[in-house]
Amino acid sequence: MTDCTHLARRFIGSLRPGGPAPGDETWARDQLGPGERAVWARMSGTDRRHAVAVARTAADHLGAATTRPVLAAALLHDAGKVESGLGTFQRVVATLWGMARGRDRVGGRFRAYLRHDVLGARLLTAAGSDPLTVTWAAEHHLPPSRWTLDPRVATALKAADDD
Ligand SMILES: [Fe+2]
Ligand SMILES: [Fe+2]
User: What pLDDT, in 10s, does the model give residues 140-158?
Assistant: First the structure.
């Protein structure tokens, strides 16, 4: 799911409190449908900052090919993390534990965190998201050979995501 350099960088970044800048927050909400906005509101400030950065970077790469469902996919790809309720330090432990044991061999809230792809896809289906948005939540930690999205879109979304 990640390597130690990325983990360290995300950890340091996640120590900064608060969500995106007000303009970014408004921009993000404007890309989302009503059900998606409710999911967005449950995400932590750290996760929303990460999501805005992913969406902006992916949009830069895709240019005119950037659609609303693609932006929603970038903004909500980690939405399943809301189900785990883990704080920053617990996330680090969960990630290391998953790396050491394999994410299918840990339990409880650590498992929910490490399976945030599956949980996110379920949340976004219930939120009425576009199939592309749901699919990317489910696939964003799979190897490229298992992606079903348009490869150009999936590659841009993955390249913009640093976890
Ligand atoms: Fe993720
Ligand atoms: Fe991510």
Answer: 999 999 999 999 999 999 9
Question: What six digits make up the tokens of 113?
Answer: 């965190």
Residue among 80, 87, 82, 109 nearest 17 (CA): 87
> How many A from CA of 141 to the centre of ligand 1?
6
Residue spans per domain, the chain:
4-160
Q: 53: CA distance to ligand 2 center in Å?
A: 10
Q: Is the pTM of the predicted complex or chain greater than 0.85?
A: yes
How far away, in angstroms, is 79 Cα from ligand 2 center?
9
pLDDT tens readout for residues 55-72: 999 999 999 999 999 999
- Cα-only R_g, the chain: 15
- The ligand placed nearest to the CA atom of residue 116 is 1
**Measured in angstroms, how far is the CA atom of residue 50 from the centroid of ligand 2?**
7
Q: How far is CA 102 from CA 29, 37, 73, 115, in A?
A: 35, 32, 26, 11
Buried/exposed code over 3-36 (b: 16+ C-beta within 10 A; e: otherwise): eeeebeebeeebeeeebbeeebbebbeebbbeeb
